[in-house]
Amino acid sequence: MYAEGTQQVQLITQTMIQGLIIISFLAIVANRLVEAIFAPIFERVKALAPHKFWLMYVAWGVAGGLVWLSGVNVFETFIPVPIAGQVLTALVAGGGANFIHDLFDHLVGLQETYKTAIEQLK
Q: What is the 3-state secondary structure (H, E, C) of 22-49?
């Protein structure tokens, strides 16, 4: 029973790391595209300068387009509905580095909870 639990933790850890790598890549690409294409428009057009907060939503849209084109679903292990997993993937990737960091911290905490539960089953 302990070996089974350890294998499950290892599988979850491997899945989390792979998902983090993919989401990080998508976030970097989405962020760079937004910074290269859309941010200069907000900087040069003075009327748009106060509305720069909209770039966050543009980043989510760009990330959603990347996810849709690539068909990536990093949550497929946890969420069996493909479109829901892809929407979440796009939201996380479009949220940028801070959002990914927060998500990763929560996932590491979840992993520690699984390890503790397995240790208690021994």
A: HHHHHHHHHHHHHHHHHHHHHHHCHHHH
